[in-house]
Amino acid sequence: MTAGTVILLVEGRKPAAERLTPILEEQGFFVIAAHTRREAWSKVQSDNPSAVILDTLSMRFSEQRFCAALQDGGYELPVLMLLSDDAKATDTSDIRGCLRYPFTAKQLISRVNRLLPDPDDEILSVGGVVFYVTQRYVVCCGRETHLTPKQAQLLETFMKHPGEILTRAYLMKQVWDTEYLGDTRTLDVHIHWLRKATEGNPKSPRRICTVRRQGYCFRFADEEYR
Q1: Do 145 and 111 share a domain, yes or no?
Q2: Are 112 and 135 contained in the same domain?
């Protein structure tokens, strides 16, 4: 995190004791607060924040519509959603993480820092999946999942070939550097774990799809997952 990093905090009117601005400012962030949709949108345009925090419990407007407006306006800002324990996460490519109430100040700061990764890290974002290549973790469906090296290599292969049918032979060669196809259970197990990390319902996958008698395809059109 760089000192003075600008964070846009969008929250409704709250008692002073419940406001999150002091927690963030103590860590060196420069916090811009907004309380309405119009105010938040204006500050996105005028203050060039590095990230956005949406406190959905106190907001009086739709977080989904706000995120859609960011995308339509070409603002590629990472967004952190603060949600109630039972709320369903919004699944869009801008959402880099969710944090559910109740949480500690330490948890909030840790998650905000995740919004601002090492500038040298490669970030892949396809079809609602955000993958931090160097740090080997993926954000999708409102959760973060750390991957093993082979899982990460497999996901990177898929995300660099969205919409393409990749054969089992190709995947085995790319990830395990072998042309042996006598036993591909290792691939099947890794596909299983990636689906748990990237699917709302791993038993009915809509991103990493099996193409019968051909291989697998990483589908990437956002509208397919809504």
Answers
A1: no
A2: no
